[in-house]
Amino acid sequence: MNKFINLLKSRRSVxxxxxxxxxxxxxVADFVRAAxxxxxxxxxxxxQRVVLVMGERHEKFWNAVYDExxxxxxxxxxxxxxxxxxxxxxxxxxxxxxxxVEETRRAYPGYAENFHDWVMQSxxxxxxxxxxxxxxxxxxxxxxxxxxxxxxxxxxxxxxPAGWILVAQMPFGGIATAPDTRPDIDxxxxxxxxx
Length: 195
Fold this sequence. Notes:
The chain contains seven helices and five strands; from the N terminus they run αβαβααβααβαβ.
């Protein structure tokens, strides 16, 4: 079967993560840079942004997420889930840049109402590309969404421009606990071939 399909089949949400990467940290950073460069973006607007957080900053980030969620929920937030993310090697933070979107929107005003959808589609493709690529390196990952609760904290912690809008957080690391096997289930009617 096609190697790419095999990568798609093996991509999973892995929650049992640790700090033991099977590849060098630099290989992860190089891969993420390449994914950001080559994942498509409508009108080639280059709207996608990533912050790759590793080391002590990774753990500080998740501790700060916990603090923000405790404030948001009035103290009714469990530490266990956050600790599982902090136990990972690092986190990929996904953003889009409103300045890039607005510049392209001004250049193509006839499509202005579509740009929000297109920028989110591009961000989804970037998340999927990185998630699948990490899986191909035998690195586990999962996808989280603590935004917008953590938006201001993230902007301040990493000194980011106000126009960078947080979309998702992806903890990644060595696979401490493999996910359960996923059966291949054909769902009739999902694809129609016409011609």
